Amino acid sequence: MDRHTAYWRLRYQFGRRVIRREAGETLRALVALRAGVTPSRAARLLAQWVEDAQKPAWARRWRAA
């Protein structure tokens, strides 16, 4: 899933509250810092988390196991 899709999925998930691009950049930077990865890898991780958040609970548990 590309960054644009991740952005809109996040917006959908949090209702009408708009997540601005700056907030996204900050979030990616924080994830990169915490995980010790590059910002582009952090963007992919975030996209994966957004994708997982859309799945039913059993699917998330299955993937984590």
From TrEMBL:
Organism domain of life: Bacteria
Name of protein: Integrase
Organism whose genome encodes this protein: Dankookia rubra
High-level lineage: Bacteria, Pseudomonadati, Pseudomonadota, Alphaproteobacteria, Acetobacterales
